[in-house]
Amino acid sequence: MIAQALRTRIARNLQTVRERIDQALVRSGRASQAVRLVAVTKSADLEAIRAMVELGQTDLGESRVAQMVERAQQLQQAGCAGGVAWHMVGHLQRNKARVALDVAAMIHSVDSLRLAEEIDHRCEQMGRRVDVLMQVNCSGEAQKFGVAMGAAMPLAELISTLGNLNVVGLMTMGPLEGGPDAARRAFARLRELFEEMRHEKIVGGEFEHLSMGMSQDYEAAVEEGATIVRIGSALFQ
Description:
Structural class: alpha/beta
Helix content: 40-55%
CATH architecture: Alpha-Beta Barrel
Number of helices: 9
Order of helices and strands: HEHEHEHEHEEHEHEHEH
CATH class: Alpha Beta
C-alpha cells in the first residue's frame, strides 16, 4: 500500500510539471500534447515510482543500465509494470548494450558509430528493432558525452544505414553553467541541427523527436521545440 501522503505529493508534482509544459507550449504557439514526459527515476525509491506509474505516468527513464533493469524487475514483481516504457537516458557503454536492450524501449544516448553498430548487432541477435536518439554535445563542454555539432550530420547518415535501428531524433543536455540563457542557446542549436538534417533528408520519416530539457530547464526546452523532456527531481522531490 502506497502511503497517501506520498501519492498526494507525487500527484501534485506531476500536475505542476504537466501544467508548466502546457504553458510553455502555449507561449511557443505549439499544439497541446506535443511533448512526451519521461520521469527519470534515478533518485526515487520504489514506492514513489509505483505511485507515478499508478497515476498514469508510464514513460520512465534511467541513466544507468543496472538500475534500469533492477527498477523494471521491481515493478514487475509489484504487479505494476503494465504499459511502462523504459528510456535509457544516460551514457551507454558498448558492453552493456545487450542488457539495456532487454528493458529499454528507447535509447537516448547514441553518440558513436561503434555504439550504434553494437546496438544494431545485438538487436539482430534478439530479432528486434529499437528507437534511438543521437546525443549531441551542443554546449561543447569537455565533460559531456555526445557527438560534436560538426560531426553530427555525418554520424547520423551512417547510423541511419543500420537495419535494426530507428533513428527517431536527437538528444542533448543543457550546459552545467550559464543559467537559462545558456540552456536556451544549446536547445536552439539542437533544433537548428534537427531541422537541417530533415531538410537534407539524411534521416527517415520517423526522425521527429528532440529530447532536451531536465528539471531546471525544461520550460525553455519546450519553448525551443522539445518533443521529449526528461524530468527527475521536479517530479520526485
